[in-house]
């Protein structure tokens, strides 16, 4: 099958130009002006549209047993949402709990995706315990092509590792050339502050943020950086939410620590006042690290443009209102998470590129290319070049619409962005040369998505 995309404006992390793209089977085979149409070639006219490399969401939860319940998506709903929203590759956190066998967990997560995903996917393997058996299993998992780890400094007794285990994980990662992603919050401080607030009768969702203040995240980030510095391992801070944590990461980077920074969609657009809304409204906005004081948003946007923040993910984690209500009388029992997989590209485009000051190239870099480079997918993914996978987003910047639970594909009965305007959307999305979205609607095939096996590959941030 051959496909020709004509008359679009190609935008990559570095360039911007008009050219046609010729696709043979799964990859891009030519880029140029006025490519000849051979018989049997399907033609897509992209006049007035941007052509972006398929977007990559480096931080997604799909199968997630957490806080006594399960996140709501499966690979069918999640990959549909991803593609309609322009994301052609997602990296899911494979998160067996501390009590679970790592290899059994890894196989469970793989089975949930196999034969069902409409987009390509990979895993970050959570290390939630470190012992001899786990270490041997981690070596096998890396050999299987899952070449990034995840650690939690919070969620003590469930996902969390202690400092000794963090040290051992980083040493192994260094040896294997694996990048370690980390949720950076001080577990002990969170637990003490939660207990004190609840004992004082401060039980509503507006107390979630004060139970995990900015200092707690800054401490976690500083400690992670210190351990990276000591071991020489390469790290990636996930879902960074506030200025003090950013400073901790950038100070470390400035002294040569191999550390990169991700922030996630909710932190750019929402703030802690949302969790203070009445009734169930407030519960929707509980995630960790929590939504912050609004003053942090300017810092995040500025760091995104200048590269201090490397990537934008979502921490997509859908819980229905019924599940959120489990914590209506005690904020520590509210399942943490906000859905966003479908909305990341459109919202970052709208409030970054269209109405803000995010350059188009940095937008592509932060939402696609940089993640491909950090996680061993480049130049197969994250690039528009001859030989790269034909994962393309033909984006219509003239589209106008609003986000709503009524039209979303994510399996969640609310949207944290209900009613919010968007200035553009993907018109056509291809996954390895196959059209999976047309006219903004999913027309794809489930099972088309592949587990991406990655080489050990570590690239430190370029800042
Ligand atoms: N934070 C969330 O909000 N949800 C999932 C896990 C996490 O760290
Ligand atoms: Zn996390
Ligand atoms: Zn997460
Ligand atoms: Zn169309």
TrEMBL record:
The modification N6-carboxylysine is found at residue 150. Pfam families: Amidohydro_1. Its cofactor is Zn(2+). The keyword Metal-binding applies. InterPro entries: Amidohydro-rel, Hydantoinase/dihydroPyrase, Metal-dep_hydrolase_composite, Metal_Hydrolase, Metallo-dep_Hydrolases_sf. The keyword Chaperone does not apply. Residues 50-435 form the Amidohydrolase-related domain. One of its GO terms (cellular component) is cytosol. It is an enzyme of class 3 (hydrolase). Carbamylation allows a single lysine to coordinate two divalent metal cations. It comes from Granulicella aggregans. Belongs to the metallo-dependent hydrolases superfamily. Hydantoinase/dihydropyrimidinase family. This is Dihydropyrimidinase. Its EC number is 3.5.2.2. One of its GO terms (molecular function) is metal ion binding. Keywords: Hydrolase, Metal-binding. CDD domains: D-HYD. Gene3D superfamilies: Metal-dependent hydrolases, Urease, subunit C, domain 1.
